[in-house]
Design goal:
elongated, RNaseH_sf, alpha/beta, RNaseH-like_sf, 2 domains, 8 helices, RNase H type-1 domain-containing protein
Length: 241
């Protein structure tokens, strides 16, 4: 059986590499970047087992599992649209959010175009930029609710975060909780997108505070590695061993 699997893989590798049939299978693995099929099967099996162990856990120790998904009745799922922000939209309360690659996040609040206050916080080093952007949006919504602000504009420069909130197919609980908060009948929060580093004063100020927060030592929230991070790490370990 093992020999048949190697032969099947070899046929595919020859087609990909477009080389002579006399080239060894080992050389084909190197040329194409595909590992031997027995290692690939081991990878997928171990990854699947680990994912099964943690997929139903919302938290692992003190760390949130961002990939934790929950079942939602289709008729309860709604799409939350977003718009493109420009300088004329500085009306009322406007909250800019930012997530950086150095695991610091910031939020700056403007009222009628004038800077009012800001908040910064830090996530653990394994956290992805995407999670950081989602946390920043969540904190902006929480800020408005704490201050009993009924109407506000929430601005992000992360298209992927806004698209995830807009999506009807999203089932990650962390994002669904944000959607539920945005849909609160007592609030009117509008989502906006702004281009990063394009001279928008709100976006530039949040960028300034994320850089300023590099010295912050205390970690405010912990997130475990994402499904993709774990896959990459496990593949690397298996191939090295």
């Amino acid at each position: 059986m093992r020999g048949k699997l190697f032969q099947i893989q070899r046929t595919g590798l020859l087609a990909i590499a477009k080389t002579y049939k006399t080239v060894s299978t080992f050389a084909l693995n190197l040329l194409t970047g595909y590992p031997p099929i027995d290692i690939k099967i081991k990878e997928e099996n171990e990854i699947w087992q680990q994912q099964q162990e943690i997929k139903n856990l919302e938290k692992i120790g003190i760390s949130f599992n961002f990939d934790y998904a929950t079942e939602v009745n289709p008729w309860k799922i709604t799409s939350i649209p977003w718009r493109t922000f420009n300088e004329t939209n500085y009306v009322g309360i406007t909250v800019f959010t930012e997530g950086s690659k150095i695991n610091n996040r910031a939020m700056v609040v403007f009222e009628n175009g004038n800077e009012k206050e800001h908040e910064i916080w830090r996530l653990n080093n394994d956290t992805t930029v995407f999670i950081g952007e989602m946390v920043a949006i969540r904190e902006a919504v929480s800020y408005c609710k704490r201050r009993q602000i009924a109407k506000a504009n929430i601005i992000s420069d992360s298209t992927s975060a806004l698209v995830s909130i807009e999506s009807l197919e999203e089932n990650r609980k962390f994002i669904l909780d944000i959607k539920n908060s945005l849909q609160d009948t007592n609030s009117n929060f509008l989502l906006w997108w702004t281009k990063a580093h394009a001279g928008n004063k709100g976006n530039e100020r949040t960028d300034f505070f994320t850089k300023k927060a590099t010295g912050k030592q205390e970690i405010d929230s912990y997130f475990c590695k994402t499904k993709q991070q774990r896959k990459t790490e496990m593949r690397k370990n298996i191939r090295q061993n």
